[in-house]
Design brief:
Elements: H1 3-32, E1 41-42, E2 48-49, E3 55-56, E4 65-71, H2 78-92, E5 97-103, H3 111-120, E6 128-131, H4 135-145, E7 150-152, H5 160-163, E8 164-166, E9 169-173, E10 178-184, H6 190-203
Parallel strand pairs: 4-5, 5-6
Antiparallel strand pairs: 1-10, 2-3, 4-9, 7-8, 9-10
Amino acid sequence: MNPLEKQMQRWIWGGLILGVVALAALAMVVQTRKSPLPVLSEIRPFALTNQLGQAVGPRDLTSQVCVANVVFSRCPTQCHRLSRQMAELQKRIPEGVRLISLTADPSFDSPDVLRHYAERYGADAERWWFLTGAKSEVYRFAEKDLLFSVMDTGDANPRLEDRFIHSGTFVILDRKARMRAVVQSEEQDALDRIVTVVNQLKRERTP
């Protein structure tokens, strides 16, 4: 990859990050005003597979609030923190809430690989799914529906954190599989905010 291409990737990544931050700020403002959370996006049909080898589609995300993020099993840095945060959420959120971790490296992260990764963090497979599938499908679902930033740079650099770049955020879906909030994982009160939004959406009446 030549220097110009790398610079372009940095610009693209910066733009995507700004977009996610803007969405997070919007969700935060609305929440602060104690108004109904906005609908940021709606989930379209998709076909992925969880760590148990089970097919997962939109119907599996309805009738329950969902919290989602992006990780990959070979990630030595950010993903460890994100998965530890999700493990803590598993303890704190009420029953009937689905946790979802999409992989940014579906070519390597098979269901079996993700099952072993999930075990490292004490994931309850009934509540916390790790999703993989065809790369085009995973990335489309992550970027277009959940508004994550996910990029395979194609960089031959052996440092994996330079190969796969992805959002360090959590998104929260309501019981109609609509994205309603974004929370930055680096915020000191990130988990408290997620729990608050989850409880708000669980109380929300949906037509």
